[in-house]
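Most newcomers find our protein records easier to grasp once they have seen one. Read left to right, the backbone structure tokens trace the chain's path through space. Nothing more is needed to start thinking about how sequence determines fold. An example says more than a description, so a record of this kind follows:
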Amino acid sequence: MLKKYPEIKHGFTTTNFLKPLPVSLENKKKLLDLAGELGCSWVEIRDPSASLTVDECRQLMAYAKSKNIELGYALQVGLLDPMFGEIFSRGLANAVVFEGPRTIRTLYCQGLDKPAFSGSLHFGPQPVLPPTSFAFSQG
């Protein structure tokens, strides 16, 4: 896709597809197929309430590896949300499965109707910055 700039990694977040393709192992695999067709090098798996299981995340990671795609993982729950602890706990267990940028992202807000800022936690021996994102995103 960006043959003129091979050093730039490009990909997308699956948040753009949550309505037509709700969170499930099969739907995330469909999006990895799309990423492969587009020549993307990474995908951020958006799992708003950490509904994927650790086993499903392992299967996604294996599937992505077979397509040479790095995976990131993101929740969609704010730090002040009453369910944050429970969702983050499940999400943290999922995030350690992924071998891509080694981050888990969540929101700094109380709810989806409030302004939000995104934050990341980094895993591994040293912090790794997430790859540059070219917005296939609509906001």
About this structure: The longest strand covers residues 70-78. The chain has one domain: 11-122. The beta strands are 11-13, 42-46, 70-78, 103-107, 118-122.
